[in-house]
Amino acid sequence: MPKTIKHVFDEKLTFVKLVEAHQRASECKRNHRDVIRFEMDLESNVANLLHKIKTNTYHMGKYHSFYVYEPKQRLIKSLPYVDRVVHQWYVEEFIKPYMLPRFISKSFACIEDRGAHKAVEYLQKYMRIMKRNYGSYYILKCDIKKYFYTIDRNVLFDIMKRYIRDPKLLDFTKLLIFDGEDDIGIPIGNYTSQYFANIYLNELDHYVKETLRVKYYLRYMDDFILLCKTKEEAKAYKDILEKFIVERLHLEFNKKTRYYPNSMGVDFCGYKVFETHRLIRKRSKDKMRRRIRRWNKDYRAGVLDLKSVEESWNAWLGHIKHANTYTLQNRYFDLMEFKEIFSEYLSK
């Protein structure tokens, strides 16, 4: 692929492509008020958006901020619907075709046909190779402190400038990156943010693979793992990488970053991974226990929504099926005071 992105902005900026972006942005949200309003006058809304982008008069709207508390407190910022359409267009037309192919093969977040489960599969494969070749070895597991909140937007823009030579696309990218008052941090909740965050640490990936020549390395967003022959090697890599992320990316490791013997396994992408098997992380089990307690309470009050239970239960089963969890699944099913009714519902 070309080293830089040139002469694509006007070609990709069309009425049809913005309509397609709306269709993607509205998936599973057709009944939301802002989506309904946008669709009530779809042609005019899209034409108006197209005109604003073409004439450099487009500016993003005001964020709606709120907190979520799973697995920990996070500040989420949500843009008006029209801006989410723009983000869909930008990611689909520029990030995916031009930036994602630059990622290393063992970067797993935000990439089709990879994801968390693939990351776990490759991690276990690497662990088995290390076990076979060296018997015992060390795991260096790294995590970035408050990652999204500490990304330096100036560094991010400098990275994007190296790849973009289309002036209009570069100006629009700058608009998306510097959409707030601060130079530090990008909003959790923006569709573009997860891709910008991945592009940011792609710098680290290439440094690890091409400069340090680490063979057994993989990353899922800001969690990354190196498998090392010895404790000394793990410590040396930790020191080198810490210097790199501070000096080049203006980031910090958090206190969870450490190295330890392979016999302890690896907490990664929701699983506890060993060479021979995988277990479900305690946090996931505790979360489902709390959910079942809430369902039991609703059942006793006569307000249990079985469809909602089915969706949540099946989503959890989809997660735990990638680990050794037959006994766990049965044990949790037995905790449901309504399991007979639920079984009948599932069989219909």
Short description:
The chain is α+β, with helices and mostly antiparallel strands and 348 residues long. Helices cover 55% and strands 11% of the residues.
Task: Outline the structure in words.
With 348 residues, this protein is an alpha+beta fold. Helices cover 55% and strands 11% of the residues. It has 15 helices and nine strands. A four-stranded antiparallel β-sheet has the order 4-5-3-6, with helices on both faces. Helix 2 packs across helix 5 and helix 8 runs antiparallel to helix 9. 28% of the residues are buried.
Annotate the secondary structure layout:
Layout (H helix, E strand, L loop, with lengths): L8 H4 L2 H11 L7 H8 L1 H13 L9 E5 L5 E5 L2 H18 L16 H20 L3 E6 L3 H4 L2 H11 L3 H11 L13 H21 L5 E4 L2 E6 L2 H17 L10 E4 L4 E3 L2 E3 L4 E3 L1 H20 L4 H15 L5 H9 L4 H9 L1
Antiparallel strand pairs: 1-2, 3-5, 3-6, 4-5, 7-8, 8-9
Helix pairs in contact: 2-5, 8-9
Q: Report the radius of gyration as a whole number of Å.
A: 23 Å
The class by helix and strand makeup works out as: alpha+beta
What is the helix fraction of residues, given as a range? 40-55%
Terminus-to-terminus distance: 51 Å
Beta-strand portion reads 5-15%
The number of helical runs is 15
Largest sheet: 4 strands, antiparallel
| Assembly context of the chains | single chain
Low-pLDDT runs: none
Shape call: flat
The H-and-E topology, N to C, reads as HHHHEEHHEHHHHEEHEEEEHHHH
| Number of β-strand runs | 9
Q: What's the mean pLDDT score?
A: 93
Strand order of the largest sheet: 4-5-3-6
Features:
alpha+beta, 4-stranded antiparallel β-sheet, 3-stranded antiparallel β-sheet, flat, 348 residues
